[in-house]
Structure formats: structure tokens, C-alpha cells
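thread from #wetlab-drylab

HS: before we spend reagent money on co-crystallization trials with adenosine-5'-triphosphate, can we at least see a predicted complex? here's what I'd submit
DV: go for it
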Amino acid sequence: MPSTVPARPSPAAGTPPDAMIALEGLTKRFPGSTAPAVDGLDLAVPRGELVVFVGPSGCGKTTTLKMINRIIEPSAGRVVLDGTDATERPAHELRRDIGYVIQQIGLFPHRTIAQNVATVPRLLGWDKDRIAARTDELLSLMDLDPELAGRYPMALSGGQRQRVGVARALAADPPVLLMDEPYGAVDPLVRGRLQDQLLTLQRELGKTIVFVTHDIDEAIKLGDRIAILNVGGVLEQYATPAELLGAPANDFVRSFLGEERGLKRLSLLTTGDTDLERGPVVDATASAEQAFRVATAEGVDWVGVLDGSRLRGWLWTADLDPVRVVGDHDTHPFWVVIDRDTSLRGAVDAIVTTANQVAVVVDGEDYLGMLFLRDVVRQLAS
Ligand SMILES: Nc1ncnc2c1ncn2[C@@H]1O[C@H](COP(=O)(O)OP(=O)(O)OP(=O)(O)O)[C@@H](O)[C@H]1O
């Protein structure tokens, strides 16, 4: 006789299959507070992605992060880590799988950089040689001079200390990294470099990262996805940076994204993502008459000259000698030649400084096409 008892839901019921971290109805009420700090938060962090929590002060970003590694225990709801309910695992074991980086870094001042980095491997009982090899590897990964290994934290710059903090969090190779305003205390220049380094690291290591900041520009630069939180841990929108900027869910999100939403969106797109125009170009073997026809069809009075796949330069149609092929004429270099990886924001900045309002887009030596301001406007509208 078939059983009438319903099957117990699996621990990861309701969690998308690719979620490394799933927050399910996650709630925190601090004793003595009337309103919850985090209220029924549902959110899945896909494996290998960098998700940014952003929102005004007091919206529950840090509380949520600390519930993931159980520094704070939830009042209700749960955290599912890689398919398993996090509360079912001993907290010390759970934290081995979760690196944690905070703003004040928390390096031990009386221990050397090498000893700081080796904190978790030592706790795990690794032998000396393995610890030394891992420390060297991590310093090199974080672009830190091996000479720093013997120094104390006080003798390092803020940016170096922050990188040591990341090295220490990565020591036992945890699949998940939690970062709480890690770059809040460093100056903007160093901050930019640390952000670039984190993106490179993320590409190389494929960790799942949850990153907390109150800086929307940092969120847009770093996040595969951004969760915009409001006071009380209310999730206002959870989407990719491009989706957020293109279609903010409500006024709160719109105001949080701030001014220059269009320009911020342009910074996420590259010229390679755009439909480029072939532009008024002819091969060097073309006749003057062919060149004139191409320019006229494009509504311009100049033409670009191609040598095979390379764009040699341009000339005025008025300077074309009717009895010579185009390649026999002198050409002018283009003002703006950009790589396919250039952001559309960078491209627009360059285009508006030119007389003919066009940028030539190349892939190495090869000509890919031309980008006019009208193309950028079309891209934004789509
Ligand atoms: N230990 C605690 N006891 C009582 N209330 C707390 C505690 N920790 C945080 N809170 C409250 O919970 C709310 C959320 O705090 P949390 O630190 O998570 O916000 P946050 O978004 O990280 O803020 P910030 O950007 O300022 O760091 C706040 O109202 C805060 O005062």
C-alpha cells in the first residue's frame, strides 16, 4: 500500500539548482528592537558569481552577511549553503568554507604577515612546508612582495593590509568569500586598484562572493548581480547592473542609483557589444569614382581607405584624383581609434572631441567598424 505520508522536503527545497547560497525567509529581530533588522529575505547567490548588497546605512547588509557565516543566528528563516542547511553544520566547520574580509581587516598586530595569512591553515593542522608554500602562493596571487612576509601589519600601507586580509581569507581555499565594506577605508585610487584586482581574482578563482558596500558605483563595477536593500532588510530589487540601470523597479531604486544613470549604463557596455557600422570605407584598390559613391551614400565628404583588414586612414573626397586608385592618395590618420574592449562611455568621451564624431573600432590591427554617436544613442534606447 502506498504511503500517504508526504515526503519530507529536501534541505534545499525551493533553492535554484545553481545557487551556492540561498537565503530563505531570512529574518533577524534583535532583542529590544521593535522592527526587524532583516525581514523575510529571499535571495539566491548563483555559484561563482559576485553579488553585491547595497543600501543605506542600517538597512541590514552586515546583519545579513553575518547570518550567512552564523556570526549572527537568524530569528527565522534559513541559509542554505551549497544545498545544505547551514544551521545543520557546526559553526566552526561552516566557517572553514567561508572566507570573511572586513573593513578594519582585523590582522593580528603582533604577528607577521606570513603568520597572519597562515592563521586558518595552522588551525587546520597543516604541516610547516605546506603552510609556507600556500603563504608564498597567496602573497604572489595578491600581488604582494614576498619581502613583506616577515613584516608586521603596522609596516604596511592600507591597500597592502587589505590585500593581506583577502589572502588570509583565501588561505584554506574556501568556495565562498564574504566581504564587508572591505575598501571603505582606503583612498579612491587604491580602492580602484583593489577593485580591479578583485575582478581579476574572481575570474581566475571563480569563488562565490557576497560583497557589502554602500557605494552604488562600486556595486555597479564589481557585481554580477546587485541586491538593493532598504531599511528593515527589505529587498527592493535584485538584478544585474545593466537591468537595474535600464529598468529600476521603483523610485527608491531610481534615487539610489543616482544621477547619470544613462552614462553608468554606457560604462557597462563595450564597443564590441554594439552593432558597428561598416562606415564610408573602400579598399585601396577602389577607383576614385567608387570612393565618391560610397561617401555620398553615407552622406559624408570623406572616405576611409582599407589595406586588406587594416584601416590606413581617411581623405576628403574633394582631394580624390579621378585617374588614380584610392590607395595612391595620401591619407590622414583617424582621430579616435579604440579597441573593442573600450566601454561605450569611454567611446562617447572620445567621439565628442572629434570633428567628424566617429570612432574607428579595431581588434588589434584589424578594422571592425565605425561607431557614430547615433549608434550609441540607438544602443541606449534598445
Ligand atoms: N547587535 C545588535 N543589536 C541590536 N541592533 C542591532 C545590532 N546589530 C545591528 N543592529 C541594528 O540592525 C539594523 C541593521 O544593521 P546593519 O549593521 O546590518 O546595517 P548595515 O546596512 O550594514 O549598515 P551600515 O551600512 O551602516 O554598516 C540597524 O538598525 C542596527 O542598528
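DV: Residues 1-14 have pLDDT under 50 and may be disordered.
HS: ok that's useful, forwarding to the group
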